Amino acid sequence: MKCAVVNAGVIVSGDLRKPFIEGDTVIMHDGAIAAVGDAAAAQVDECEVVVDAAGATVAPGLIDSHVHITFGDYTPRQQTVGYLESYLYGGTTTSISASEVHVPGRPSDRDGVKALAVAAHKSFQSYRPGGMTVHAGSIILEPELRPEDLADVARQGVWLAKAGFGAFASPYDYAPLIAAARANGMVTTVHTGGSSIPGSGAITGDHLLALDPHVSFHVNGGPTAMPDPHFAMLVRESSIALQVCTAGNLRTTLLCAQLLEEAGALDRLLIATDTPTGSGIMPLGMLYTISHLASLGRLSPEQAICAATGNVARVYGLRSGVLAAGCLADVVILDAPAGGTQQDALAALAHGDVAAVAAVITDGVPRFVGRSRNTPAPSRPVKVARWELPHRFLGGPA
């Protein structure tokens, strides 16, 4: 299948080093981006599906790197079915598991911990709620695990490891298993801040420096933040990616972004939601945090979008998150919300508004076009301009 988005007013790349791309077209072929920027009329004519952005903003699909997946599109924490598909209507095209800690009766023994991670990982390999990509199966590090267990689950495809919910006497005791996970090519993450639910404990900057994970989860608090001086310590003394979440402390979100910006290290800033938790279901959580950073902090809206897309993809080793040839064809069209005071999506985000989501494309397939069920309508008439397929995809004309 060939799909094109044309007449973009602005293209945000997702790449912090060069956040804008000149031109107005994105060409997609068989699930990957073929070209971005200027395109010849012949390239567009070859596409069976053409989406007219009508001058709206085109950006990579958002990547939420802190979603508490269980099994299927269901969260027992909030007794809600269909929340992942609903997140897609908020512009999130990829969700990454923050560990399956909310599975009822979650096992903590050696065999059970491994089985849970492997089963979750494999369950989502061919299951895409609403068209979303879900990277599930984050092994929860427990005292019974041995380094060879990390090698075993990595062999079965598990590539995420989470510290912070295991029955260790001290957070420092996670260090050997984090090192073993790293040695097996896994992305390692650590709960940061005060306790979030029974079974988790406080982890601060001193612990993180000793553990040296790839990502400090909800560094702004999940929901309680660590002491302020520890943020500067992590920025100055480590290369750990600092993930700020919608369900955390907004003041320390802004502090973290400011410190990274001052250090020239904004590529370490990741935006996520840390949901579903006690904070609830947040289909627009990613857009809220982007707007908070762009309106209350010192980030431009395009920098904040990069922190929710390309930055995440680089840290997690994903092919999505950037609009570039060869990357996965996950694209969102954003606009100023109808009835608002601003003229485009970036201005709306800088003003503190949540942008309207006018279309979402995943794997090169339009999932909806025109308006989201979770945002105001866009100001511009984003529409399907051509549909020459023999069958109807979600988002195509009836």
Q: How would you describe the overall organization of this protein?
A:
With 398 residues, the chain is an alpha/beta fold. The protein has two domains: 125 residues, Urease, subunit C, domain 1, CATH 2.30.40.10; 222 residues, TIM Barrel, CATH 3.20.20. It is built from twelve helices and 22 strands. The strands form five sheets. Strands 3-2-7-19-20-21 form a six-stranded mixed beta sheet. α9 packs across α12. It is globular. The model has no long low-confidence stretch (mean pLDDT 95).
Shape verdict:
globular
**Total domain count:** 2
Radius of gyration: 20 Å
Strand order of the largest sheet: 3-2-7-19-20-21
How much helix is in the residues?
A: 25-40%
Portion of residues in beta strands equals: 15-25%
Reading off the top of the CATH hierarchy, the class of the largest domain is best stated as Alpha Beta
Q: Would you identify the CATH H-level superfamily of the largest domain?
A: Metal-dependent hydrolases
Structural class based on helices, strands and sheet pairing: alpha/beta
Q: What summary fits the major beta sheet?
A: 6 strands, mixed
Could you outline the blueprint of secondary structure elements for this entry?
Layout: E1 2-6, E2 10-12, E3 20-21, E4 25-29, E5 32-37, H1 41-45, E6 49-52, E7 57-60, E8 62-67, E9 74-75, E10 80-81, H2 83-88, E11 92-97, H3 110-123, E12 133-135, E13 138-140, H4 147-155, E14 160-163, H5 175-183, E15 187-191, H6 205-211, E16 215-217, H7 228-237, E17 241-245, H8 250-262, E18 269-272, H9 285-295, H10 301-307, H11 310-316, E19 331-335, H12 345-351, E20 356-362, E21 365-369, E22 383-387
Parallel strand pairs: 1-6, 2-7, 8-11, 11-12, 13-14, 14-15, 15-16, 16-17, 17-18
Antiparallel strand pairs: 1-4, 2-3, 4-5, 6-22, 7-19, 9-10, 19-20, 20-21
Helix pairs in contact: 4-5, 6-7, 7-8, 9-10, 9-12
